[in-house]
Predict the structure.
Amino acid sequence: MLMRTARKPYWGIVLTAALILAVGCGQHSRTSDEGRIRPLPPEISPLLRQVVEGASKQTSHTVYYDSSYVEIAYPGGDVPLERGVCTDVIVRAFRKGGVDLQQTVHEDMQRDFAAYPTKWGLKKPDTNIDHRRVPNLRTYFERAGKALAISSKPEDYLPGDVVTWDLGSGVDHIGIVTNAWSDRSKSYMMVHNIGSGAKLENVLFAWRITGHYRYF
């Protein structure tokens, strides 16, 4: 590639560079209103503050999507930080706020296993995977009284809120609201992992919302 570039006439190199700069500037102009951090209110819970910060920091560490079944410790078990699935974003953020969803989901499933989805054919709880499944987190949040009404108003979704979506054909997804603000959509941005690691993106209304939860 370097040799082919070196053989181009000078004007070709200049034109290529100009196109790159133009595209780059265009991309910058399209995203310049994205991700403006809004200070969290001073009166919010310190735990909630830790959750929001914990979610945002994952974008610097989790770079792979990996849905492999892995045996992990209990409680406090986790797959390697550089990889995970969408639910791991929530689990890791909540642990910063002192809530271990691996443990709380497991204990609730022990109390009433029949209340949880049976689509995976399990006969009993599994601490390695239960908390890493979106339908189980939805069930737990609902049973814990943390569900809010689903709304089409951006102002109803605040930092630390958890949102679940249907990506189509019944494929579930989950993310967490941050304090990064988009002037374009007038809404907070989400941290989620949909296939290429934890990302901060403006996707609150990108798919059909199936759940809205406020734990802290």
Observations:
- The chain has two domains: 2-31, 38-213.
- Residues 87 and 133 are 6 Å apart (CA to CA).
